[in-house]
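Annex B. Sample input.
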Amino acid sequence: MVKSLRTIQAPIEEELQEFEQRFRDSMRSPVPLLDRITFYIVRRKGKQVRPMFIFLTAKLCDGITDATYTAASLVELLHTASLVHDDVVDDANERRGFFSINALWKNKAAVLVGDFLLTRGLALALKKKQYQLLQIVSNAFEAITEGELLQLEKARRLDIDEEVYFEVIRKKTASLIASACAAGAASTTTDEDVVEKMRLFGETIGMAFQIRDDLFDFGASDVGKPLGIDIKEKKMTLPLIYALQQTDNKNRKRIIRQIKRHSEEPATIREVIEFVRQSGGLEYARKVMFQFRDDAFVILHSFPPSPARESLEDLVNFVVEREK
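Annex B, continued. Sample output.
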């Protein structure tokens, strides 16, 4: 049985409450419009999974320090900036069931708010002289940009194989969780081997996280993400890549042609979803996802047992078994 986030947070509950206050303070601005928009962002924050990874990782290593709060704020500020910019790029009107910033305040304001959050995060790290944290997170966001552009390039030809797919999600998704875990470790220890070990732990979980997200596209229940949205956007996810590998050349070309030309049509989306289900794509993706989970556990179990390690185990299970 998957534990609730509330239960998983138990060893770091006080620290998360302190972080939430610091995070709100870090977003304040004397400009009324900007302050109103950032207040709206804070009110609709997500599950706080990344801060949980940061604080639990720090607690697993040598203990939470003031630098851990800086790491959490830095990661969340830059991550939030990227989401605001993503909504502009994707022309998205909603995020997590709320209106997006660009839907309420238009694209110009949204881009500027994203820029503000980005620079505020960088300034916070510089003010605290946390140069290693800044390096870790900057590397992640460089990778995220590369991953997005690689996916954009490949989407035009729909020629992504598993090797390219894993490169895309390693850069686009896994790098952020990897940076969170590495930053959590770096905030409390100078042991570079430990920092790298936690970076690899986070990267492995990030891979599993994205595959779980891919599976939602083919699910039968309402998970907060429209069914077939990846197909509509011509994204080659692991279940689809596997399904295309299992069929004959003629059918493969036909399915790809349908996605290229008619990806926004409901009939095409239904056809592709059924094709993937019948080809064993979902089962294969789950198998790969659980292998990444098991690899993460191997890394985690190299640390001695503790409440932080137990919560990290539960958080890993939450990532791969979450319903939305």
